[in-house]
Amino acid sequence: MASNQGEIRYLTPPSVEIKKKKYCRFKKNKIKYVDYKDPEFLKKFLNEQGRILPRRITGTSLKYQRKVAKAVKRARHLALLPFVTDMLK
Amino acid sequence: MKNQYETVFIATPVLSDVQIKEAVQKFKDIITENGGEIVNEEHWGLRKLAYPIQKKSTGFYQMFEFTAEPSMIEKLEIQYRRDERIIRFLTFKQDKYAVEYAEKRRNKSKAEKEN
């Protein structure tokens, strides 16, 4: 049984995702303040439905994730960003 | 003790240009009368809203940056709520990073205007 186990040949080689070291872009570029007035920058932290991406995806540190969340909520209040949408990014 | 504040408000698109200027002037006077001092103001003009507010999908955006006494903000907000031309407003206290950022942003926009 084990022998034919080894003989399984995959049609396409299983692509192992090389693990990219995630870094907090705010620490790296020394950004201290997240401005709620420019939606273009904030869109990088939203998914297609307009929801805020979790830290494990964007890799931002906790301190800046809170600032981003507050800025996004302010932008939503001022209708610069939608609450929910199916915007094509 | 004076703090630096930033306020943005959206006016209904139904208004004519004259009414918009008059509304902006009214709030500028409110700030200056109550001991506020305007540092910077920006008029973003007619912009599309991300979602309809009061059945309208566009609005006139206006932004003020000013230093004022904390007690004055409440008066300003009452005026916002009372004025029916304003459909949405937001005021917030700038912390030291925000002040720095606003400073840089102003110089950048001035530089753009020059060249």
TrEMBL record, chain A:
Keywords: Ribonucleoprotein, Ribosomal protein, RNA-binding, rRNA-binding
InterPro entries assigned: Ribosomal_bS18, Ribosomal_bS18_CS, Ribosomal_bS18_sf
GO CC annotation terms, alphabetical: cytosolic small ribosomal subunit
GO biological process, one term: translation
Bilayer-crossing regions: none
Record-level Gene Ontology MF annotations: small ribosomal subunit rRNA binding; structural constituent of ribosome
The organism's place on the tree of life at top rank: Bacteria
HAMAP family, per database record: Ribosomal_bS18
PANTHER family the UniProt entry points to: 30S RIBOSOMAL PROTEIN S18 (PTHR13479), SMALL RIBOSOMAL SUBUNIT PROTEIN BS18M (PTHR13479:SF40)
Subunit structure: Part of the 30S ribosomal subunit. Forms a tight heterodimer with protein bS6.
Function: Binds as a heterodimer with protein bS6 to the central domain of the 16S rRNA, where it helps stabilize the platform of the 30S subunit.
Family: Belongs to the bacterial ribosomal protein bS18 family.
Protein name as it appears in the record: Small ribosomal subunit protein bS18
